[in-house]
């Protein structure tokens, strides 16, 4: 199913993000991931998105997961794809391979700048990639949005200008970076609407399950953590059960408020684990579990 059709549903759309496991020469981690996804399937997701290592480092694994999500789990997959270190020719081949595999949607990203600065100059921004995908394929395209501004941007307004360019080039849905303050998301959506962006802006939700994980994820992007939540996590950082409980309670409140505001969907950063996400969805949508 294509993105447009998915987000025309009247019920909030549930989607999950997973990533290809690292250091998995014997395939055990991939096996485990597929088991976690089988559990998450009970929550009726409309989409599973699969990340792509910058520079193509996870390409084969990403493709394998995308195909298994589609063929074994019968869930619509959405591969991510990054362009900053990739040539036009490689991208063209990749798009053809995805379409041949029956994939209908793609999340088009620039990717993080490589630390050594070596980029391929064919595509400098996600908007260039989106334009190319729309010209070369019939895939539906999604893009990334940043409620608190992208880490490199000079201002949120400038970032939204470029987001508008991404939708003008053909992005049909925007998935946001993780955030913890719903007000930041609501203001972002309002600014997007004022800038003429009418596409669904799907909130990205990270269920916090450990203080280490929270520190790692938030070091990579611009995100505010509410003081009381951060204090609770830090104070009990050695009590993993407490931290997980606290993270789940926070996410349940956050998602419930988003749903009450009429969001079109929730996109969960699962970190390849089902248990926290399962508890959150069971709590906010008890009727959707099958
Ligand atoms: P862009 O939209 O190109 O924006 C990057 C920066 O350039 C921004 O500061 C923007 O304001 C600016 N900009 C944009 N267009 C222009 C222009 N025309 N002229 C001048 N400046 C411009 N990374 C991965 O490596 N793999 C993944 O699978 C992955 N998945 C992600 C999924 C989601 C939902 C999100 C939110 C992020 C994901 N990322 C992933 C991270 C992402 O690659 C980085 O945030 C990256 O630094 C920016 O990608 P982008 O597509 O937003 O870039």
How would you describe this structure to a colleague?
By secondary structure, this protein is α/β, with parallel strands linked by helices. The protein has one domain (3-285): TIM Barrel. 45% of the residues lie in helices and 16% in strands. It has eleven helices and eight strands. It has helices at residues 3-6, 28-40, 59-71, 88-100, 126-136, 156-169, 182-194, 211-219, 227-235, 240-260, 275-284; strands at residues 13-18, 47-50, 77-82, 105-109, 140-145, 171-178, 201-205, 265-269. Strands 1-2-3-4-5-6-7-8 form an eight-stranded parallel barrel, surrounded by four helices. Helix 5 runs parallel beside helix 6 and helix 10 packs parallel to helix 11 (275-284). The protein starts with a helix and ends in a 6-residue tail after the last helix. The mean pLDDT is 95. Flavin-adenine dinucleotide is lined by residues 51-52, 54, 80, 82, 107, 109-112, 125-127, 144, 150, 152-153, 158-159, 162, 165-166, 175, 177, 204.
């Amino acid at each position: 199913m294509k993105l447009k059709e998915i987000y025309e549903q009247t019920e909030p759309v549930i989607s999950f993000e997973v990533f290809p496991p690292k250091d998995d020469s014997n395939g055990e981690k991939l096996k485990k991931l597929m088991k976690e996804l089988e559990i998450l399937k009970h929550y009726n997701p409309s989409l599973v998105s699969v990340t792509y290592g910058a520079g193509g480092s996870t390409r084969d694994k990403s493709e394998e997961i995308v195909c298994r999500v589609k063929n074994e789990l019968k869930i619509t997959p959405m591969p991510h794809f990054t362009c900053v270190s990739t040539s036009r020719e490689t991208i063209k081949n990749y798009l053809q391979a995805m379409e041949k595999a029956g994939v209908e949607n793609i999340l088009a990203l620039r990717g993080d700048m490589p630390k050594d600065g070596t980029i391929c100059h064919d595509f400098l921004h996600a908007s260039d990639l989106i334009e190319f995908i729309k010209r070369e394929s019939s895939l539906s395209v999604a893009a990334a949005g940043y409620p608190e501004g992208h880490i490199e941007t000079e201002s949120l307004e400038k970032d939204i200008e470029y987001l508008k360019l991404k939708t003008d080039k053909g992005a049909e849905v925007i998935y946001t970076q993780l955030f913890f303050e719903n007000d930041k998301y609501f203001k972002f959506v309002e600014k997007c609407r004022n800038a003429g962006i009418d596409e669904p802006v799907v909130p990205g939700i990270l269920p916090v399950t450990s203080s280490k994980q929270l520190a790692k994820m938030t070091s990579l992007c611009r995100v505010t953590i509410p003081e009381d939540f951060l204090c609770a996590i830090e104070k009990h950082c050695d009590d993993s059960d407490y931290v997980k409980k606290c993270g789940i309670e926070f996410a349940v409140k956050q998602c419930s408020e988003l749903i009450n505001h009429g969001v079109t969907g929730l996109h969960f950063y699962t970190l390849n684990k089902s248990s926290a996400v399962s508890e959150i969805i069971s709590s906010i949508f008890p009727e959707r579990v099958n």
